[in-house]
Amino acid sequence: MYSTMTSVMNTHRKILLYIWIFVVTSTFCLFLFREDIVRTTLSSLLSGSSPSAYILLFVLGALRGFTLLPSTLLIVAGLLFIPALPLFFIILSGIIISSLSVYYFFEYLKLDTLCNTKHRKFLDKGRVYLNKYELPVIIFWSMAPMLPTDVICYLSGTLRVNVYKFILGIVIGESILCAIYIWGGKAILEMF
Question: Are 172 and 144 in contact (CB under 8 A)?
Answer without folding.
Answer: no
